[in-house]
Amino acid sequence: MNPVIEIAIRHRLGTFELDASFASTGRLTALFGRSGSGKTSLVNIIGGLIAPTEGRVVIDGQVLVDTQAGVFVPKHRRRIGYVFQEARLFPHLTVRQNLLFGRWFAPRDATTGSELPGVLDLLGIGHLLERRPGALSGGEKQRVAIGRALLSKPRLLLMDEPLASLDEARKAEILPYIERLRDEIGVPIVYVSHSVAEVVRLATTLVTVDQGRVTACGSTGEVMSRLGVGGLSGAVEAGSIIEARVAGHDEDYDLTRLATRAGTLQVARSAMPPGGRVRVRILASDVLISLGPPVGVSALNVLPGRIMGIGERATGGAVELLIDCGGEKLLARLTAKSVDALGLAPGSAVHAVIKSVSIEGP
Amino acid sequence: MSDWLSPEEWTAVRLSLIVATTAMLASLPFGLAVAWLLARGRFWGKSILDAVVHLPLIMPPVVTGYLLLIWFGRRGPVGQFLDEYFGIVLSFRWTGAVLASAVMGFPLMVRAIRLSIEAVDRKLEDAAGTLGANPSYVFLVVTLPLCLPGILVGMILCFAKAMGEFGATITFVSNIPGETQTLPSAIYTFTQVPNGDAGAMRLTLISIAISVAALFVSEWLARLVGRRIAVE
Fold it and tell me: pTM here?
């Protein structure tokens, strides 16, 4: 299979030097790294906003940049959608005009069939059409920006920290839309982020960037097993977010049962009606690992799974594990001693014992 | 109304409106182009262009008028060329009054448009580019609408300046009733003759009324446009 994206560039910005190369076939390739690591410059080079000092960029088999051959396709001919950190909607146009902006320039025979009704439905923005961008909330703006990029019929979608300027509730509002984008629309996505939770949840391929260099590239599980998330991001509050449906309530014990792909979770009684959709967050430090089904523990929530990757030992002796529980990815943080004592390795079948689950809202 | 003003006075008012409107409309394309060059261009001699555009603002109007007379007069190098090849004569014609007031209003127009172009968020233009719009289309549907308030302000300033322009006009095209006698020239003439005070006062009131009306129209337009593009 041809790589969706193949890039090998060198670019100098003042004293900062970007020297990056990677190739990806993933549906959602996450560029992950600290702020200032060069992620945004990298997507700007892919999108054609910056011309690299030297190198090649190949998307879907077409050479967009090749400094040796003197090729540089300008941004308006690349057919690469770009969702910026700020929505960048056109303030003088209505939401409808914003959405349809790119349609005038898209080739008529474009195969990626994103039509207006479908996109409105996918992003839940049908009721906003006649408004102006000034009257939208941050989350709504970002959804319209995503729709606008999709409707230009791109063959690749770049998303540069699209959630960074939003608060936690708005992030939770948009994440499922990005998941649907990844799973339902046939447009590969390059997603820039410095949030472990987002990357773990969204990425199929993970490219880590540090000080202008690509430090790892591969499937999410594999890269995490090589590098460890904690050591990379310095994120203390690393955790996972899992999609859930309210399955019912346990009146005797004041508990609510949540059905997830990973299994059933029980949390403190919530007011949500059965059938409602919620998201739950599980902090990596709230997950214990047991080799067999645990007996005699107080924790209610135990999910069976398989270790996808084990991180490297960070300062403080902590190690992060990525566990695949029925398709959901769960992050766990253990001590290096526990990992060795249990003999954990990628592929090991384990049970994740969850101490605490918090509901993130619908 | 027609009893109130003499036919000559009416002619001066009408001529002034025609001259100012023509000057405003004729300098708009040039004003846009120069403002764009000054706001976005990177070329050798940019500061020279900037200085030349601003010269009429700082030079005595009479000097501007005299320079126009030398270059655009019948025997001036540019005037001769225009006469020979296009049959356009500027000196001592109303078209010359248009040129004089356009030159005087030009720096005001360019300044206003340039500021509004500089205020346009380049990131929006980048976004339009990634959506497939080529640079000229980006200019037409993103940049131009976003600096519309500045363009309107520039046009009104140019119009107001042209309505009031006196020194350059009288030097270049003189003060010929019915041909080049605009409102200010007519007022000046009244002040030079005995018993002209009443006429001067009438024209002065009209002049004030037109200026105030122009100001209101520009405020109203700016608010209308501003509401449409209420920037986030």
Answer: 0.76
